[in-house]
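Final report, results section. Input specification for complex C-07:
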Amino acid sequence: MLARLHALQTTQEQHDLGLEIVRDQLLPWLRDSSGFRGLIRLWNPEEAKTLVITLWADEESLRASAAAGNQLGELTAETVGTTRLALENYEVSLFDVADA
Amino acid sequence: MSQTPDFILGDEFAKVLTETTMSLVCVLDQEGRILFFNDACEQVTGFTRDEVIGGDARDFVIPPEEAEAFGEVLAYVSATGLSSPQVGHWLAKDGERKLIAWSNRLMPSADGSAALLVTAGIDLSASTPSAADEEAFGGDPEAKLAEVGRLAQEQRALRRVATLVASEASPERVFTAVSEECARVLEVNASAVFRFEGDDTATIVGRHSREGAGDAFTLGMRLQAAEDTGIGQVLRTGAPARIHDYTERPGEIADSMRQMNYRSSVSAPIVVAGIIWGAVGIASAEPLPADTEARLGAFCELVSLAVASAQAREDLSASRARLVKAGDEQRRKLERNLHDGAQQRLVSLALTIRLARRQLESNAEAAAASLERAAKELDLALQELRELARGLHPAALTEQGLGPALAGVAERLPIEVDMSTPAERLPENIEATAYYIVSEALTNVAKHAQATKAKVDMTLAGKALKFEITDDGRGGADPSAGSGILGLRDRAEAVGGTLFVISPPGKGTVVTAQIPFSEA
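Structure output:
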């Protein structure tokens, strides 16, 4: 499994607006994307930092979603009025989530 | 037009006819019980109606040695509803044997509960032979009768196999039946059906041996069809082959034949669609009669029919599977195109409008730029949706017909297309099928043929639409290599049409199709 990490500098208000956009507009579309395996959004109020991690089944799906991920990520950042700190790809070396 | 009055063909007529005719008329139920026995039957046999009605025919008039054949005829006529003319003996009350030629027909009983067998016979032993009859029936009457009986048995065996073939039984079942019937009818020790494998070997696909256990030739066994074997000769010549004597013959098959104490064999070809598909072979401990090849040939023809029929069913099934798969793939492709195209643009559009709304409060100029971007996204989304809709079923086809719709396809291709289409509108399904085939064929030309121009010639021929797509490309298209040509053929055949592709290397490609109106 592979991951794409978006790192953003966000105030509380920007975080809330970004969360709404990701949950209501991006996630429904992402769920229908080939090889999409999940999304994790992390928020650190002290550091005013948001991390968005999308998970992809393989190299092919990560590559196929790269252009859309970049374009929509940038547009989301612009819409919430923040700047993107980083956009990086990772290999998932361990993934262990207890059942909810 | 005059009609036959009811009284002529009514019950009274039947009664008078059966009482006055010189022919034997006997009605049997499906178990062989006598239900009707006319005057002629009484006169020929000496039995009275009171004696035989309700009794089994085998207890009165059927000789014991012909009881089994009688049972087979009853079963055959009951199962198939077909008549089965026979020549056989009846035993008179005084023990005299009468040779009778029978015809028969199945008839529903009065209450419709069961089918009855109506038989009408002529007593051949009573007639005084003419000179011609002497010629025809001269010699040993018993030998002649045996010959007639043998032919009748052979015909029954062929009919049983033909019934299996007609009922679309699996080829394996037909092979087994043919092996059994051949061995029985030709009175040999064993028989087998072989399928040639294309590498000088043959597989036994049907087998019957009177020896049972210890058979040297078993189902599924693969044999070398060498030149000096019967099946090897069939494979090489396409004609029946006979091995008179295995005593001194070399080779593995000959060894096994000797092991089974078989002395001679005859093999005959099974030809399917002009290709020698296999052979039927029989083996015997005795020398085989001169007419064996011809008699075996009749069984081979039935095997050919069974194989051809099974192949046709397999082709149809494969074609249906390909059509379903192609449909699934088209739907998957459509879903992907929508998701990655128009849907993504609409998500982007929604975000851009949100951005513009936020910018309106602080920066009207930036908001205007965002709205401009949104309008462009919307245009692109619409354009992509239109393309997709056109791919599904172009509006031009519904509104204007084949000519304008195909002209639209040709315009978008990077090659020159010369098009000739009928001016009149055709049935909707004909137009849709022709549109799909022509547009797909032209797309193939543009993508793969390295052609500079193509020509579409479409004409009405009676109740069919005929068309031809030619190009000046590199040719060499292989229908079996990819699904493209097969897909076009499937599409044409699905509506009862035909499609052929001729594509010699270096000389372009010609696709010829015909679609009938009635079946489409």
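The mean pLDDT of chain A is 93. Chain A has one domain: 2-91. This concludes the modelling results for the funded period.
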